[in-house]
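Figure S7 source data.
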Amino acid sequence: MYRYFCVILYTFCVVIDATYGVEVPIFKLLDGRDIPAIALGTWLGNNTQGRVKPEGTEVEEAVKWAIDAGYRHIDTAFVYKVEDQVGRAVNAKLDEGVKREDLFITTKLWNDAHAEDAVVPALRESLRKLNLDYVDLYLIHWPVGQFSNLTYDDTDYVETWRGMVEAKKLGLTKSIGISNFNQKQIDRVIASGLETPSVLQVEINLNLQQPDLLAYCKNKSIVVMGYTPFGSIFPSKARSEAPPPRVEDPALVDIAKKYGKIVPQVVLRYLFELGVIPIPKSLTKLRIEQNLQVFDFQLSQEDHQVLQSYDQGYRTIPQLKWLEHPYYPFKKN
Ligand SMILES: NC(=O)c1ccc[n+]([C@@H]2O[C@H](COP(=O)([O-])OP(=O)(O)OC[C@H]3O[C@@H](n4cnc5c(N)ncnc54)[C@H](OP(=O)(O)O)[C@@H]3O)[C@@H](O)[C@H]2O)c1
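Tokens for the predicted NAP complex:
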């Protein structure tokens, strides 16, 4: 295992100098482009009332802090309803002299635009909100289609993928990928002969490490972005049935102390060493900065064994409302 992550690190990673101090490594995409090895997440999540509604400038501030700290990759989506805030922050930083080509902006196609000819208009709408000419990466958010009246849309995601290829041809996005697809679904996309996705974005954290899917993607040279990287480590976010560990777990605290780090940094570093691009979300300046300080230490083989032992195949985002959809991607229990 230890050898495995070293090989990943040295094969796919080139460290580049960031203008703002922190050295952010990059991975190489199948299409030849570079992708920064950590991204700021911008989904505000759910609370007891449902989706948290954006209030105005909280994400805008966070993205500005992130770019100042050295992040070069921002992950957003149409459905997060914050593309306008991301766009204002990015454009403010461009006005201050950051180069567009040094930033990597990812956004996602929502489930209500799965028809082949709906993809380009959906991306144009995201670009309008972002106030950008192009994004760096456009992902199909889920393989499941759903009309705006919430009934299922059974459009084949391979048709959706055709629309993605067209969006790339038009220069509206530099790279294209998928999110929440399982291995068989990715195989079907590849078998279409259109274009292999450059990126798969899926949930990856201590409780859901998905080694088989990671090995499959490595074999296909598909770069993996890991969402919800903290899983259930924070008690405020963990459901009651979520397996351990929590952030105060003594074994995790011991590992963190050994490197002069904090537990969230150990978690992000572990994902990076698995070859995954973690996408930590935070609206807190200090945490945004802390979450980037993960490229100046390396976990030992023993640490890997401890961290690997928390893999329970436990998913925090099963999206059970789509369980009966023909393209529901996850194992049904
Ligand atoms: N493709 C998909 O279907 C999909 C699904 C889910 C998520 N995503 C992407 O992945 C991103 C991350 O996932 P997520 O938002 O579910 O969860 P997450 O990043 O694992 O966790 C976010 C939570 O952790 C807290 N936090 C962050 N850094 C911390 C630190 N250093 N110390 C203590 N607390 C910290 C944040 O609090 P504060 O904000 O209060 O600091 C927030 O409550 C999303 O924002 C989104 O961009 C994609």
